[in-house]
C-alpha cells in the first residue's frame, strides 16, 4: 500500500517525460489523476492508457504561463473529480545559450514557466484548499532540479529559475505551515527525457555522463519513491523539504 490510494492528483507537464511517469505511478497506486499540459493530444492518449489500466484519469489543458489557464484547469479538475489534494508541480523548460547571447525573451520565458508558473499552480491550489477548509490535506510537490544548487553550464535562466523554485518552496511552506499545507521540492539529477535527449546524444553530453560517479543517467522511475512518500500520510510532518535525488551526479 503506497498511501496515496484515493488521493486527487494534478500533474502538470504530464504530456511527456517525468510528468507522464508521475501520472502512471500515481494512477497505478490508486490515485485519481488529472493530467495537464498544452499538448492535449498527448494527454488524451495518456488518459486512455491509464483508464485501460483501471484508473480514474482525466486531461485538462494548461499553460502555466497564463493565470487564467491555471484557474480554468483547477475549475475543470473540481468539476471532474471534486478538487485536487496533491499537486505534482512539474511543468518546466530549458533554454540553452551563453548569457551574453541569450535573447531576453527566452530568459523571461524560462522564468515564466519554471518559477512564476510553479508559483501560480501552487497558489491556486492553496487558495482553493484554504477556502474549502481542506488545507490540512493539501500536498504540493514542486519539481526543481539539481541545477538549483549546481551549475549546468550554458543554462543561466534554467539554473536561476530552479534555485527560485527551491527558495519559493521554503517560503510557501513557512507561510502555509500553520494551515497544514505541506510544500516540498524534489531536485532531480539527469533522467533522459525530451528536455535533454538531444544534449545527451551529443559528444558533450556523453562526456558529462562519463564523469558522473555512476556513469549513467537515472532511470525514468527514479523519483517515484520520493513523490509517493511526499503525497502519503508517512510524510505528514515534512514541509519545506528540499530533496536531491541525483544518483550522486553532482558529487
Ligand atoms: N529530465 C531531467 O533530467 C530533469 C532533471 C531535473 C529537473 N527536471 C524537471 O522535471 C520537469 C519535467 O521535465 P521533463 O524532464 O519531463 O521534460 P519534458 O519531457 O520536456 O517535459 C516538460 C513538460 O512541461 C510541460 N510544459 C512546458 N511548458 C509548459 C507550459 N507553459 N504550460 C504547461 N506545461 C508546460 C510540457 O508540456 P507541453 O509542451 O505539452 O505544455 C512537458 O509535458 C521540469 O520541470 C524539469 O525542469 C528534469
Please characterize this protein's 3D structure.
By secondary structure, the protein is an alpha/beta fold. It has a single domain, classed as Rossmann fold (3-Layer(aba) Sandwich). The protein contains eight helices and seven strands. It has a seven-stranded parallel beta sheet, sandwiched between helices. Strand 5 (139-143), helix 5 (156-176) and strand 6 form a beta-alpha-beta unit. Helix 4 (104-132) packs parallel to helix 5. The protein is globular. The mean pLDDT is 98. The protein binds NADP nicotinamide-adenine-dinucleotide phosphate (NAP). NADP nicotinamide-adenine-dinucleotide phosphate binds next to helix 1.
What strand line-up does the widest sheet have? Answer: 3-2-1-4-5-6-7
Mean pLDDT, to the nearest integer, reads 98
Q: Count the helices. How many?
A: 8
What best-fitting shape do the alpha-carbon axes yield? globular
For the record, give the distance between the C-alpha atoms at the N and C termini, rounded to a whole number: 34 Å
Low-confidence regions: none
What's the CATH class label? Alpha Beta
Bound molecules: NADP nicotinamide-adenine-dinucleotide phosphate
Structure classification: alpha/beta
Concise overview:
The protein has helices at 17-28, 40-52, 67-81, 104-132, 156-176, 197-201, 203-211, 224-230, and strands at residues 8-12, 32-37, 57-61, 86-89, 139-143, 182-188, 242-245. It is of the alpha/beta class and 251 residues long.
